[in-house]
Design brief:
single chain; about 280 residues; alpha/beta; seven-stranded mixed sheet; 11 helices
Length: about 280
């Protein structure tokens, strides 16, 4: 499958990997038989690699519904986004944001209407931050952008074409289930919620489920399982003693990325991250 340069993430996502693509891309083996990405998020690595066969997954059902909709109902999605774009004001934003507070209303929305809502909110909310409260309700404030790119038709159609032509399975659930079928020759890119370097740096608001020390240790056990099956993996995480000790028997490369999700501008900037693999990386 020829790569399409217009295939790129449809949403801005916390921890998105666009910043690290220059470091990640050269480390991805070219001879894998199947690609797995169980913590999909923004999807920058998949869209940069564009494998013909893949399984993608995320615990965030709303996120994966967006990509299913882009694949299956792109024309209608674009029509709804044009409507949102025409109506976009702060008052309208908060009205749309509030849809998930009304369970009956939300239950009656089609999957395409829900997808258009998420894309609209993502493009117009403060800092492009997908954030939910403990009840799973979207709660990021309005962003006050002068000209947000709500209807990015060229990108949406390119993604739709790629997802339709390739054998791309879109899942939403436990990452362990998503990689269960990985066999020797497959490649798995893992981008879990990062282990926090400090309490203030922890951000798990994109889903109302936490990912703590126990979950990091469970993920390491899954990596060991992949290794025992002859499956290559590449994993991203924060550069800290806990992570480097946890994965000490694997190959670790330190990299840095600019992060801009801190509410205080002077706290944003380059942060240490690591790429970990069960094969040789330079």
């Amino acid at each position: 499958m020829n790569k399409d340069p217009f295939v790129s993430p449809a949403l801005k996502w916390v921890g998105g990997k666009r910043q690290l693509l220059k470091d990640i891309k050269p480390l991805i083996p070219e001879d894998f038989t199947m690609y797995y990405e169980p913590f999909f998020g923004g999807g920058a690595v998949l869209f940069e690699t564009q494998p013909a066969k893949a399984v993608i997954n995320d615990a965030n059902e709303e996120l994966m519904n967006v990509y299913r909709t882009i694949r299956d109902d792109c024309d209608h999605l674009i029509e709804l986004l044009i409507e949102h774009n025409e109506k976009n004001t702060a008052e309208y934003y908060y009205e749309v944001r509030g849809f998930d507070r009304d369970q009956k209303l939300y239950a009656n929305m089609s999957s395409t209407e829900r997808a258009a809502r998420i894309v609209y909110l993502n493009k117009t909310c403060y800092n492009g931050l997908f954030r939910v409260n403990q009840s799973g309700q979207f709660n990021a404030p309005y962003g006050k952008y002068k000209n947000p790119n709500i209807v990015n038709e060229e990108t949406l159609r390119a993604i739709s074409n790629y997802l339709s032509k390739g054998k791309i399975e879109i899942k939403s659930g436990d990452y362990k289930d998503a990689i269960k079928g990985a066999r020797k020759g497959a490649f798995v890119y893992l981008d879990p919620p990062y282990h926090p370097i400090s309490y203030s740096s922890s951000f798990t608001g994109y889903t109302n489920n936490g990912f703590g020390i126990k979950e990091q240790q469970e993920l390491k056990a899954q990596c060991d399982k992949l290794t025992s099956k002859g499956v290559r993996f590449l994993l991203s995480n924060s550069y800290c003693e806990f992570i480097t000790d946890l994965y000490e028997e694997y190959n670790i490369k330190q990299v840095s990325a600019k992060r801009a999700i801190n509410s205080k501008a002077d706290k944003r900037g380059e942060v240490g991250e690591v790429l970990i693999a069960n094969y040789e990386i330079q």
